[in-house]
Amino acid sequence: MSLKDFFNKKRKYATIPSERQQPTNMNEGVMTKCPECKSIIYTKELKKYDMVCISCGHHLSMTAYERIDSLLDEKTFEEYDAGMTSANPLDFPEYHQKLDKDREKTGLNEAVVTGEGYMEDCPVVIGVMDSRFRMGSMGSVVGEKIARAIEAALTKNRPFIMFAASGGARMQEGVLSLMQMAKTSAALKRLDEKGLLYISVMTDPTTGGVSASFASLGDYNFAEPKALIGFAGRRIIEQTIREELPDDFQTAEFLLKHGQLDRVIPRDEMKDTLVKILDIHGYKEQ
Amino acid sequence: MHSYLPFEKPVIELREKIAELKSFTEEKEIDLSDEISTLEDRLEQLEKDIYGNLQPWQRVQIARHGERPTTLDYINYLFTDFMEMHGDRLYGDDEAIVGGIAKFKGRPVTVIGHQRGKDTKENLKRNFGMPHPEGYRKALRLMKQAEKFSRPVICFIDTKGAFPGKAAEERGQSEAIARNIMEMAGLKVPVISVVIGEGGSGGALALGVGNEIHMLENSTYSVISPEGASALLWKDASYAKEASETMKITAPDLKELEIIDKMIPEVRGGAHKDLEQQVIYIDEVLEHSLHTLAKLSEDELVLNRYDKYQKIGLLAGENVVPSTE
How far apart are CA B245 and CA B235, in angstroms? Predict the structure, then answer.
């Protein structure tokens, strides 16, 4: 350490986290606080119930791999394109650092995990987003991985299931992110024309460019209870129309009421429901 | 008389000075032609310097200029026999999007575009060119009709974005945009999109999945407005100028990123300075695009569009090139 560094060293102050900043994961993850009813639950117990609060039924967010484990038959998942990472097409300041930080935090290379596997012996191609990575935002990699997964479904004649969890397009990749909406939707058009099944499940949150592309294009559009789903942000709408919005605005239940969803499916019924649909579509005998 | 943008001030001042001198010579019968000619040379140079070297934020201001020609201005000049068709057959008629049938040099086409107003009254009627779901559904209805009758679709993009409102969300803004994007990808007729003003996010892309995408020189196309990007990334909306540079939203930027096919030149100072000349520039590009795309079969058109979008994006890490199995 040089003398200069010594003088530059920041003084450390004790910080008292405010209540808002208090993490939901406490005691290094042993206990988890439900953001809805504030109950403190053993994380292990919570995971056993697929991250659904035991006392109030609130659906906490799941990591991509937790979701895959909860849906696919054991040891059947084969991941696609796991090593694909983002470039920095706009030379956006600090983008790489932010990506590195999220990689470290989540153990993921990007905000979506794609691959194939079996659900009660039905072969499927699946994509699962993880909102911990850059808010699940869609940049070049997310768009490319989803489009490739759809192309794999096309080649293998398999149904495609997508679990969305995303704040929308990724700002740091600018208009390239916007164009991923076209890339994924164009791939879905092919799937559609080939008569293959696409099930979209919107989880908390599914907004912006993701809700305005592949997430809304399912043969069946489902959502998890209370998931936030919408195109524009609540605050922007309130500022634009100068009107207070109902409490349930942009929730899964609100969308269901307005005819925008086929069903709202609680997590403990998710796998059974999906398998039933796969069966009705004749994928069980394959 | 046009209203001027702040960065144009030196040009305007010099132009006024020349006019003053000219009227002075006429009144007083003094010969100042040498001085005038010097000043005129200087004006020419100044215009070249300012308009020939526009910065992103200046282009944003031109793209948003109140007098910038709109979709209907261009339709009136570029096409003959334009007949507007209304309604989505589901809910209503959204005047933030206009569409209909017309002829381009004798050939039938379908024309669709975002429509904003030039004054408050018209903007209220047009909802500032920010569509609701019924606008996108009307556009899709007209595109499907174009496909049925094998005529090319020409879209003009000019919107700050899809309208962020309660009713829009209730009626499925996301789904309407998503559906347009997906269905445009599969259209079996040529599709050409031209960004003429602001191309704001998904609300613009919903008319933008073309075989060819062109942008007027001073138009913008972005995932979020510079103000929005500034607020989101720097927690402060006042860095819009900086954001307009960082986000790469201008026609030259998108040409460099290989997202658009052609940058259509604008008359000096912006399209609003000479609509008729601007129309000539757009006309040439449209004719060329239609001529090129006319050679493609239905399947080739769809494939051409598919490949165009699959190519967009920059990747790193492993498996960047798809396996060829």
Answer: 17
